[in-house]
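Replying to the earlier thread about multi-chain prediction with a worked example.

Input:
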Amino acid sequence: MHWLFEPGLFANHSVRTALLVGAIVAVVSAVVGIFTVLRGQSFAGHALTDVATAGGAGAFLAGVAPLVGFVGGGVLGAGAMDVIGVQRVKGRDIATGVVLGAATGLAALFLYLSTTQSSATGTTQLILFGSIFTVQSSTLPEVVGLGLVVLVTVAVIGRPLLLSSLSTELASARGVRLRALGLIFMVILAVSVGLSAIIIGSILSTALLIGPPASALKLVRRFGAGVVLAVFLGVGATLLGIVLAYDSYYWFASHRGLPVSFFVVCVVVVEFVLSSVAQSWRRRRVPASPRAAVVGNPVGWH
Amino acid sequence: MTNAWISGTIVAVLAGAVGFFVVLRGASFPAHAIPNGAFAGAAGANLLGLNPLVGLVSFAIMAALGIGATSRRTRNDVATALSLVLMLALGAAFLTLSTQYEPAINALLFGEILGVSSSEILPVVLLGALCLVVLVLLFRPLVFTSVAPELAEAKGINATLIETIFLVVLALSTALTVPVVGALLTFSLMIGPPAAARLFSSRPSRAVALSVALALVTVWLSIAGSYTFNLPIGFFVGTLGAVLFLGARLWGALRSRRQRLVIA
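Result:
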């Protein structure tokens, strides 16, 4: 295994913190992501990273703790999207777009003001692309705490949320309050995305939210198995990506390592391509059985 | 300054026209993803010492075709999200490899309209005109496939072909707008004014004209504001777009209440 694990990998303090924090974020993203993919809210999930980033830039400018800015900005954005109209599918897209546009405008202003005032170089890049290697181990308790809040909330509202994600008619017939549930989900999504955006950057946040759940839903039919597989794929991609990024420092003569986000995204995309291939293979080899015709893809996840 | 007005005007006309179809087809996510993919292309071209426009156009078209090809087999939004993160990750890798310094990145992301040179205007005019011609030629099938997809298919219109052509036009026009208003705000200009225009008028031809007009007003006000207050243009474009949309919503709500009162 020496070719994979460069010397000193596990002795490095910031690498250990990165592996731990990355794994936590990957678990939370995978669980929230399954619902995001099923509900077709990938755009909102991605847009909230940018909205959270605007909040983070604002917090930086105001001298507030960045975590407050990221999570607060995300929750405000989620509320705005909901008010403008997240319910109807096409209107939802536009509402997300309008909030995203306004948030990027504000981010432009905040970043401009903070770079001219304190000449903090590298802030833009750090905020956009994140750097897991710079995570302070002191933020660990906050990350774990918020992650737990998200997971517990998902566990509590999981059943009605799943039902409403699969069929709104069936859910409202069963007396599920769709509007309230949708809003709660948007807030959870915002907290989880804000949390991952501050730690791993907005690129990775979207990659881990959408990639592993989409791959898992291609491979298994049962929901519980899907969640477990998504968590496994997400954590695997994060850990492998971090190790590869650490190794890449030794690949170039210039000793300029490639970013973690690059490697994690590559692993996530490879996972997705492989599961698409596996899915089409299985479809060709096993023609739909009578049972599958009845039970089979009721959700329309492909 | 003159260059800023000229290129800003071209970009506004283009974004207003393309944006109408983006809003009509519910394609906001691709409209956000493609400019960001294009940003990675510019970073790559910079690394190889090529003209950034080459990188922008090729990556934008790659992103458009990638989204088009994958969304036939997967959910559209998942395909778009994964194409987007792949492009952004490539952009991040290009940026680490090149010795690019921060102001240049900020310019690509947030735009540098006041720094547009005369030699950069000609390709923008030519490609922009090409996009507008394609939109005019495809106006009817584009509206038809967006409003009544089943009916359009029954009439023998190839919806996949129309969708692919539309994504390529979207890619070309975003590649042009990125150097002017930046990757992040190309998107704002394509959503805010057209979404507001759609709320004001339901007739496609009138809504397109209104969308272009609102986009022009947004850009002109933004350039003036950016120049006067010495603040980034992106701030003005982003917030004005949202203000226009909210204004249109408010106007719609007031009008429907008045109509209800008249009926009662």
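The CA atoms of residues 40 and 214 of chain A lie 11 Å apart.

Feel free to reuse this layout for your own posts.
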